[in-house]
Amino acid sequence: MAPYNMVPNGAHERAMTQANLTQHELDSPPWSRVESTLMSTARLVREAFDARLEPLDLNLTQASLIGYVTEFGATTQTRLADHLGIGRAAIGSVVDQLERRHLVERRPNPDDRRVWLVAITDGGRAMADRVREVDEVLRAELRRGIGREERQALAWVMTRLQHNLRSAIDTT
Questions:
Q1: What is the torsional sign of CA 122, 125, 127, 133?
Q2: Of the residues 44, 66, 81, 148, which has the maximum number of CB atoms within 10 A of its CB?
């Protein structure tokens, strides 16, 4: 796979120093706060995955659905929507798109005739392997220069932030 340059002319090569990273203080203007950095990073991650998945005619949401069903087996659209963090109507559209391509199929749920299960097809399994290859290459690029301890610390902070956000949402 050919390397992708996310920013033209290597503009992203600006050195990240501790001084650059600590400018995200609580009294900073909104555009340079940690929350803004998180949101812009999330957008860039999505853009990077979407660009890499484009040759497979997939986007990150579709690839994530294929990966989830491949790993955990047939599941309901409601569970998929919850896992992917999108609405039930939106997940129905994603399933429709993948079903038209014969990557997933809907099957009756033997435990509840009102509910359909989304299952992976043989074509979907083959696509999951291709998605996994794209994912491994891109994750290696995303993690370049970031050590294991740094990734673990980031994961801990992100998990704590998610907990705090869920608590804030629950109190509204």
A1: negative
A2: 66
Amino acid at 143: R
Alpha-carbon span 167 to 169, nearest angstrom: 5
CA atoms within 13 A on the CB side of 1: 18
* Whole-angstrom distance, CA of residue 61 vs CA of residue 57: 12
pTM for the model: 0.77
Helix axes 34-53, 60-72, angle to 10 degrees: 80
Q: How many CA atoms lie within 13 Å of 152's alpha carbon, on the beta-carbon side?
A: 3
- Report the alpha-carbon distance of residue 18 to residue 28 in Å, rounded: 16
Question: Which two structure tokens, joined as six digits, stand for 109?
Answer: 């749920």
Helices (H), the chain: 18-21, 34-53, 60-72, 77-84, 88-100, 122-142, 148-170
Note the pLDDT tens digit of each residue in 79-99. 999 999 999 999 999 999 999
Report d(CA 56, CA 52) in Å as an integer: 8
Q: Does the structure show a pLDDT above 60 at 15?
A: no
The confidence score (pLDDT) of residue 27 equals 65
Cβ-count burial of 118 within 10 angstroms (0-12 exposed, 13-18 middle, 19+ buried)?
buried
